[in-house]
Amino acid sequence: MNLTQIYENEQKSLNRFKLLPHSFKKIGFIGLILSTLAVLFFRFAMNDAAILLSVSAKLVLVFMLIISISKEKIEDEMISKLRIQSYSFAFVMGVIYALSMPVIDFLVDSAVEMQSSDYSEMSSGILLWFMLAIQIAFFHLLKSLQS
C-alpha cells in the first residue's frame, strides 16, 4: 500500500463522521440552559443532591457537545475551516489550561495558607467544559468576523 492509498483511506474514514442537523443546535442551547440551571439549583438550594449535581454537570457537557457538532444553517467550506480552527484553538488552550491550572492553584493555596499545600490535578469534567466553551465561543467569534 503506497502513501496515496493510505491518504485516501484516511480521507474516507474522516468523511464518515457526520455533523448533527442544524435543528440539534436549538435543542443543545435549550438543554444547556436547563441543565445549567439544574446545576445551580442542586449546588446551592439542595445540600444532599450530589448525584443529581453530577448528572446535571454531565448533561451540561453533553448539550455543549451537541451544540459543538451541530451544523450551521449554511454549512460550506469556510464554516468547515472555521470549525477546524476553533477545535485546534480549543485543544491548544485546553492543554495550556490543564498544565498551568494545577500549578497556579498550588501556588495560590500555598501563598494564602502560608504553608505547604497539596498538589492536585484538575477534574476531566472541568477540562472538557473549558475546551467545549472555548471551541463554541471561538467558532462564533470567527464566524462573526468573517461576515
From TrEMBL:
This is Uncharacterized protein. The chain crosses the membrane at residues 27-45, 51-70, 82-104, 124-142. It comes from the Bacteria. It comes from Bernardetia litoralis (strain ATCC 23117 / DSM 6794 / NBRC 15988 / NCIMB 1366 / Fx l1 / Sio-4). Keywords: Membrane, Transmembrane, Transmembrane helix. The lineage of its organism: Bacteria, Pseudomonadati, Bacteroidota, Cytophagia, Cytophagales.
